[in-house]
Amino acid sequence: MIRQARPEDTEAILNVWLLASLQAHDFVPAAYWWRQQEQMRARYLPSAEVWVCEREGEVQGFIALAGDYLVALFVRPDCQKKGIGKALMATAKRLRRQLTLKVFCENDIAVHFYRRHGFAITEEHLDPGTGQPQLCMDYDSP
């Protein structure tokens, strides 16, 4: 079930984010992700519209939107390849006609996922926090 996040979901969302970030971004030192947890808790999640995918009473993935910007789409590693990301993306597209996001170039799985869902690369730049190249991608509803 996909539903809007509640305050009591925060710890589960942070757990999903950390586990998925560590797995998907192994080219960034793990310490970077551990240090970002408080920013996620105090800054990013409270300022975003967050939706979770809950199955069997557990948060297994989430999306976070700030206006038309897709701040985050993460699925717990042990729950991937089960359609959760696809369902979360469908929710984002239902909520917004246009979406923009940033994704690390080396995160091939995510880049392909977003391309399959109609996103196009608009530019590339270096992420200031990690020094890693990132792609900016846009989606416009047909």
Automatic annotation (TrEMBL):
It holds the Pfam family Acetyltransf_7. GO terms for molecular function: acyltransferase activity, transferring groups other than amino-acyl groups. Keywords: Acyltransferase, Transferase. PROSITE patterns: GNAT. The keyword Acyltransferase applies. Residues 1-142 form the N-acetyltransferase domain. It comes from the Bacteria. PANTHER family: PEPTIDYL-LYSINE N-ACETYLTRANSFERASE YJAB (PTHR43800). This is GNAT family N-acetyltransferase. It comes from Oceanimonas doudoroffii. The lineage of its organism: Bacteria, Pseudomonadati, Pseudomonadota, Gammaproteobacteria, Aeromonadales.
